[in-house]
Structures are given as C-alpha cells and as structure tokens.
C-alpha cells in the first residue's frame, strides 16, 4: 500500500473522480473532447497531486502539490457550474457533489496549513 492510499483526503478525492466520471458520461457526445474531458482531467489532477504531494519529503514540495490539487478542485467546481449553465447537468447534480468538493477542499487546506507551521 502506498502512503497516499491511507489519506482520507485522497480517498474522498477518489470518490469524487468516480462521481464526476459518472456525471460526465451523460454529457452530449459533442462534448466528449470538450468540457467533459476538461472536467475529468481536472478531477484526476486533484487526486494525483494529493498522491504526489504525499510522496514528497520536504514541506515546500508537499505544499506545492497540495496547492495544485486545491486549484484543480476549484477548476472542477467552476466547470460544473458552467455545465449547469449549459444544461448538461441539473443544478441538483451540482448541489449533490458540492458537499464532497467542499470537504476535500477543507481537508487540502488543513494539510497546507499544517505544513506552514
């Protein structure tokens, strides 16, 4: 087992990946290489950067990767709002995922704060 697999933030980010993939599978076909792909890439970046940060030895490096993960999470949220605007998803779909995204964001922020002390 890798060290990042023990992190509850990575486990929750992994759940978010699955949820996003299920949601974007229902996007229009013409969005396969557009917004749906962009959202998928961003959500994968969240869990990937958490994993990479966990594997780093120095706080500055960890902070760098956790910061990227946080930014990617905000990118996902922004893109889901756009998907609502374009009627690709229902507002209720976004609202269902929002607490999970918020929880992951708070966990990443907590990890970053702990590294700055």
Blueprint (SSEs and pairs):
Blueprint: H1 8-24, H2 35-54, H3 59-85, H4 91-116
Helix pairs in contact: 1-2, 1-4, 2-3, 3-4
What's the gist of this structure?
This protein is mostly helical and 117 residues long. The chain has helices at residues 8-24, 35-54, 59-85, 91-116.
Structure description:
This protein has one domain: Up-down Bundle (de novo design (two linked rop proteins)). The model has no long low-confidence stretch (mean pLDDT 97). It is elongated and about 45 Å long. The chain is an all-alpha fold and 117 residues long. It has helices spanning 8-24, 35-54, 59-85, 91-116. It is built from four helices and no strands.
Reported by name, the CATH topology is: de novo design (two linked rop proteins)
Overall outline: elongated
Q: Please state roughly what percent of the residues sit in beta strands, choosing from under 5%, 5-15%, 15-25%, 25-35%, 35-45% or over 45%.
A: under 5%
Structural class: mainly alpha
Distance between the terminal alpha carbons, to the nearest Å? 28 Å
Q: What CATH architecture would you give?
A: Up-down Bundle
Order of helices and strands: HHHH
Task: Please mark out the parts with pLDDT under 50 across 5 or more consecutive residues, or reply none.
Answer: none
Radius of gyration: 15 Å
- The DSSP helix count reads 4
